Amino acid sequence: MTGSKRIILLLFTAFLLTLAVLFLPLLRFKTALYTKRSPNTFVGDEKYIAVRAEVDQEAAAYIARGIPASVTEQVTERVNSKGVKTSMVAFSILTEESRSGWQLLRAGLSFSTLLCLLLVLSCLLFLTGLWSVKAPSRSGSTIQTASVVLALAFFFLVPVTALNVNISLSRKVALALSQNLPEPEMQHLFSRLDTFLYDGAAGENIQIMLGTFSYTLSPLYYLLLCPAFIFLISTLQLRCGRILQPLLRILLYTAVLLFSLFILYPFFVMFITAFRSNAETTDMYFLHILPTKWIWSNLQDTLNRGVLRYLANSLLIAGGATLVAMFCGIPAAYAMARMEFKGKRAYLGFVIMSQMFSPVVLLVGISRLMNTIHLNDSLIGLMLINAAFNQAFAIWLLRGTFVSISSEMEQAACIDGCTTLGALLQILIPIAAPGIVTTLIFVFINSWNEYTISTVLISTQTNRPITVGITQFSSFNMIEWQYLFAAALLATIPVVILFMLIEKHLAAGLTAGGVKG
Amino acid sequence: MNNVFTRHKWEPYIWILPSVLLMLIFVVFPIGIVFRLAFSEISRAGVVGQFIGFQNFIDAVSAPVFPTVMLNTLIWVVSVVGLSTLIGFIAAMVLNQEFHGRKIARSIMVFPWAASLVIQASVWNYIIKMEYGNLNNILLNLGFIKSAVNWRSAYQIEFIWECAVGIIVTIPFVTFTVLSGLQSIDVSYYEAATVDGASFRQKLFNVTLPLVKPSLTVSTVLNIIYVFNSFPIIYTITKGAPANKTDTMVTYLYMLAFYDQRKGPATALSVIGFLILCIASGIYMMAAMRKEESL
C-alpha cells in the first residue's frame, strides 16, 4: 500500500500548492487614473512646475481616497521642421493593485465556470486520494490512474485559467471602454471592477480610471507552478517506476477526448446556433459561447416555414427508395448467393462497378432521362433514382449476409417440396434479418442525405427534400442561420441515431462483403 | 453448389431481373445519354443536334480554367484521401484498444459519416465566417486570440478549408473499415510477436499492416471514388468562386451544365470523369474479386 500512500501525499501536496498559488497576490493590475499631456514644456521650466503641482494635487486627492497612486512622467523631445527643439511632458497617475487569483475569481467577473471546474477538480483530487487507500488493490490502479489524470488536469487548468482571465478580461474592458457592450452588462462590469480594484472608491469615475488597463501575471506565478509540476512527475516516477503505463493511458484518453470534441464541434455549433436569436447569430461582438437566451421556438418556426413538408418529402423519398431497393435487391442477392448461372460473375462485376457510377457525373444524362419519362420534379423519380444508385451496395451487402448463412436448412426445405420463394421468405429472411436491417438503414440514410440529384431534378418548392429545403434559409443577401441549423438539426438527429444502430455490421459488410470463409 | 434451388435454367434470371431492370433504366441509360450528348452539338436550349466528333471535348479541355480545375481535383482527391486514411487509420488503432467509454467514442465517430454533407458543409461555412463565425467567437471567449481573425482571406485558404472539411467527413469511413479489419485479426498473432520480443513498430509493420491491407485497399479505392464525386462541400462553401478557382471537376461540371447552360462541354467532362472513375473502379473490382477468390 505504499504506492497509495505516496499518491495521497502527492495529491495533498498538489492541493496545497494550488491553493497557495490561488491565494498568493500574484496578479497585478495596472491602470492609469489620470493623464495630462503638457506640450512645449521642458523639464524644470515654469510650465513644468505648474503642471507638476497640478498633477501632484490630483494624485494626493486619489491617495486621500485610499488609492495608492504614483505619478510618472514621460518626456518626448523632438526637433521640428524649423530646427527648433521642442519637448512634451506627459504626466500620468498610475496605480498598481495586486490581487490573488482567488479574489479575482470571486469578483464575479464572469469566470465562474472555470472556477467551478477548479473547485470540483480539487475536491475530486482529494477524494480519489483518500479513496485509493481503502480501495482493494485491483481497482486501486484505476483510481491511481484517475487521480493522476485529475492532478494533471488541475495543473494545466491553473495556467489556462490565468491566461483566459488575462485575455478575456482585458478584451472585455476594452470593449466596455469603446462602448461596445450592452449597457447593463457594461454597468455590471464597471461596478464589479470598481469593487474589485478600488473597493468601491472610484464610483462614477471608474470609466476614466480604467483609462489604460493592463493586467500582468507575476513571474512568481509560473515559478511556483513549475516546481509543483516537476514534483508531481518525479513522485510519479518514484512510484514503482510504473509511470509509463499510466502516462500512456492518459495520452490515450486525452487523444480520444480531444478528437471526440473535435468531431462533435460542428454539431455543437449547429445545436447552439439553432436556438440563438437572429441578431445573435450574426453579431461580431457577441461574447458568450452559449446563447444568452435559448429560443426554443426556432424549431417551431422552421417547421411552420415549410420544413415539415420537406421532412415528409425526405421520408417518402428515402422510404420509397429503400422499399424499391430491397424489393429488387433481395431476390438478386439471393440468386447471387445460392444459384449458379451463366453471367453471374459478369453481373457481380457490373454491380461492383456500378457502385462507382456517381450520379453527379451522370447528372446531365439523368436529368434528360427524367425529362423524357416525365419523372422530373417528382418524388417518385427521386425515389427510383436513389433506389437504383443504392442497388449496388444493397446487393453487395445482402449477398454477403446470405453467403455467410449456411444453405442447409433451405436445401432441406426445398427437398421437402417448399418452393425457392418459400425458402427465401420463411427461412433465410428471418435468419438474415440483422444484415437486411443494416442494408435497409444504410440505403435509407443514403437516400435521406442525397442532395445533388435533388437540386437538379426538383424545381417545385413543395417537392423539395430536406437537404435541398434547408438552402432556402440562405439567400445572397441574408442567411437565417438559426432557422437553417434548426432544420439541419431535425434532419440530422434521426439519421445519426439510425446510423449508430448499424455501424458495427456496416463496416464489416462494406469491406468484406461478408465473404467469410 | 446446388441445383436444389434452380429448377429451370432461366430461373436465376427472373430473380435478378428487377434489379437488372432498375439499374439498366436509371444507371446504364443515363450513361448512354451522356456519351451520346458528348459527341453531339447541343444548343443552349438543350436541343440535340448532329454528331460533331470530339469538338465538345476540345471545347472543354481548351477552356482557360480547365488546368486549374484539374489541378484542384488532383489536390482535393490526394489530400483528402491521403490525410483521412492516415488519421482514420490512427483513430482505428486507438479505438481498437480497450478503454472506458470506447462505445461512446465509436458512437461519436459515426456523426460525420451519418450526417448529410450539405448540412456539415453549411455548419463549417458558418464556423469560419470572420464577422460572426463560431470559431472566432470561441477563440475570443477562451482568450486565444485578441481580435477576430479572417479565416478565409484568400481563395487558396478557402480551398484548404474545403479540403479540411472533406477530410473530417471522410475519416469515419476509413476508421470503421480499418477497425473491422483490425478486429478480425487473431490475438494469437500479437501474442506470438510479443513472445518473440517484437517492438510496437515491428508489430505495426509486420503484423497489423499486412493483415489490414485488404480493408485498407478497399476503403482507399472507394474513398478515391467518393471524394472525386464529392459535390456538396465545395458547392456550399465557395460555389467554386472566385472564377472557378476553387472548383473541382464535379462542381465545375455542374456549373457548366446547369448555370452556364453549356451542356456540350459539360457532358464531355462527364465522359472524362467517367473514364477516370472506371479506371479506379476497375482497380477496385480487381482487388475485390481477388480477395474473394483468395478466401
What attributes does this structure have?
heterodimer, A: 517 residues, alpha+beta, MetI-like fold, 3 domains, 20 helices, elongated, disordered C terminus, B: 295 residues, mainly alpha, two-stranded antiparallel sheet, 2 strands, flat
Beta fraction of the residues of chain B? under 5%
The count of helical stretches of chain B stands at: 12
Question: Could you give the order of the helices and strands of chain A?
Answer: HEHEEHHHHHEHHHHHHHHHHHHH
Order of helices and strands of chain B: HEEHHHHHHHHHHH
| Unreliable stretches covering 5 or more consecutive residues of chain B | none
- CATH fold field value of the domain at 76-246 in chain B: MetI-like fold
**What structural class do the secondary elements of chain A suggest?**
alpha+beta
**Whole-number mean pLDDT of chain A:** 78
Q: What is the domain tally of chain A?
A: 3
Strand order of the largest sheet of chain B: 1-2
Fraction of residues in β-strands of chain A: 5-15%
N- to C-terminal separation of chain B? 16 Å
State the end-to-end distance of chain A.
51 Å
Major sheet size, sense and barrel closure of chain A: 4 strands, antiparallel
CATH class of the domain at 76-246 in chain B equals: Mainly Alpha
- CATH first level of the largest domain in chain A: which class? Mainly Alpha
Count of DSSP H/I helices of chain A:
20
Architecture per CATH nomenclature, i.e. the level-2 architecture of the domain at 76-246 in chain B: Orthogonal Bundle
